[in-house]
Amino acid sequence: MPHARNRNPSPIPEVTWDTGLKEMNETWKGAIACLGVAVFFVMTIGIIYWQVVDQPNKNWILRGTFSGLIWERRTQSLVIQTLTEDKTYVEIDVGNVGSPDLEVPFVRNLCWLNKTEFCYTWDSVAEVKISLEVNEETETECYSMTWAPVHCHVELKDCFSMTNVSWYGGATVRGQTWPINDQSATTQLFTVSDLKDNPSGYGSALERYFLGSSGVAVLVSPDIPLQLGLDSRQHFCLQSLPSMERLPLQYTVCVAHNVRAAHQEAVQQLSQHSRVMPNMKTMWLPFWKLLAKVDSGPKVERELRTFSNRLRRHQLGEGVISLNEHSTNLLSDMDHDYLNSRKRGISKRLARDLPLVKLLNISITLSPFLGVDTTQFHASLTDGTEDYWLSLPSAPQGQLIPLMSHWQGTFCVKLNITNPGAVSWFLDKVDSLQAHLGMEYIMLEGGEGNLFEEQALRPPEALSGDKYISLLADVATRMGDSTIVTAGTRSSHKPLFVRMTPLQSDWSPMGLKGIIPSLLHHALLGYNFLIPDAVGGSLSGDLVTDEELFIRWLEIAAFLPVISFHTPPWVCGENQVLNLTRAYIAKHQRDVVPIIEKYAEEWRLTGNPIYRPMWWLSPSDPVTFTIDDQFLIGDEVLVAPVVEKGAVRRDIYLPDGGFQWQDSRSAQVFDGGTSLQDYPVPLEEVAVFFRRS
């Protein structure tokens, strides 16, 4: 076998190609694997960087013609700004939904086919839908927000920032402020309560409406249970109630070019009813509280006659003498005895007394409560009318059991306002009193609160929340246009007077300093026809002894719709107090009532308030946003009373609007936008300025 020739004389050993390729592949595989891990690591870092650092903090959700809604990722807030981002209308913290520690991108619009809607599911906890409506005629843009929980027992909570925004509206509170930024209140049901029994609650007037100085209005859905909390100088929060029914949180945010325009748009949305004025003659007469503590009808009549003679002797003119509910019931019983005695042909004395009562201008007080020790209540339990009172069945098909409550120191039941028969019975009672006592004015108390919720009971749907107050306002309207109610919600369009919350007899925000903030609050919510608290305050029930406080209070009251008295002026001071009382009653009738009547007609047509804050004439002037000790009557009268004890000078700001102001005392003329420092206001006077074109 021939020997094979060596074809590679080189000393280098021969390596086959497949072996080298195999070794090279193993090397490159390791390198490529390392490179892949590095690329993956870099990409992960990049994604994290993009999400945490480089991703835009702001995402535009909806855009209108001049405003837009932005999602701010880091603060988890919805922000409405101008499209140029040079003005922020409102910032809403919505990070309370779901897990507050979880960052939510909130940019994926599930309603992307519709450019005026935004839909999103938040953290699998709640669904949100936001729709934009642009009104080119009024130059307003409204964002309707609906949060709907995905699961049961979810609390929805949105907080509106007070930073750089002065807020107004909501509800009356003890120690009212203007704006509400300095108020604090624990989160609680946003319903009307009696502030005398619940000083930390919300009182009348109450509306689900908040107005911001940046030109923003917040209107909350009226038919869904709502909680409200106020954190002074931080925010106010709207909160739903957790329940099996998965209750939503619904509200609308409207923005306009300034605060006045925002309010005018909100007024049109707040009430679709035509506005009706009450009996304007009511404003011409002062109201005097009868303080006598008596135990029979004849004694009430005697005190009425004595008090009326005293008013006449002090030359205080004609007025309305107000009776509390106890005195009203005594007169009612006296009238009942009189009618029975006439049938028997006796009691000539009573026959003389009642006509004297009918000659006087009196105001009686009624309530929807009835004592459980009265014959009327016991009769209702036997004649089949137990459903005239708020009740609960003892079993699913059981007998109705009236709910017990406490009113004026007595155990009572409360009128079932949803029962037409009960309402007819109550109105017949009013008609009978009106026929036999001849009174024109009726004070209807006791609408505040929800008897079911106060006792941790589930109310019928027709009486949930503040619906009892609204229904009671309907009954009050049927009683006549001179009726006065103590609680107002969703009833500002009705021909009723509303009594303001009683105040302390001092100089604090719960006393004298609270009058103007409360006045502006009521007027903003549409309640312009007011019965203010008595001169000097009446919360304690004691007579006022501070003569200076009485005079300064009187000076403010003279410019309100009605002057009311708890302390007679002859008790508080000597001739000076009496003379000033006569003078300011005359001024009220001569100068104030006519201008109120003028602007009442404007309110009826447009909804513009009669009593206006300083920003009404200068809605872009930040100085006017926090002025709480001056007010306007219409557009032409500025009132600046003294509210500090011992002061005879005060600072006054005259809003600018291209016009001038003239001092009613000195006739001196000032330009709008002028700040008057230490302007003299003697004890017997109040600073009043008239607008000049």
TrEMBL record:
InterPro entries: Alpha-glycosidase_related, GH, Glyco_hydro_31_C, Glyco_hydro_b
Pfam families, sorted: Glyco_hydro_31_3rd
Transmembrane segments: 30-50
Residue span(s) of domain Glycosyl hydrolase family 31 C-terminal: 607-691
SUPFAM superfamilies: (Trans)glycosidases, Glycosyl hydrolase domain
Highest taxon listed in the record's lineage: Eukaryota
Keyword terms, alphabetized: Membrane, Transmembrane, Transmembrane helix
Name the record gives this protein: Glycosyl hydrolase family 31 C-terminal domain-containing protein
Origin species: Takifugu bimaculatus
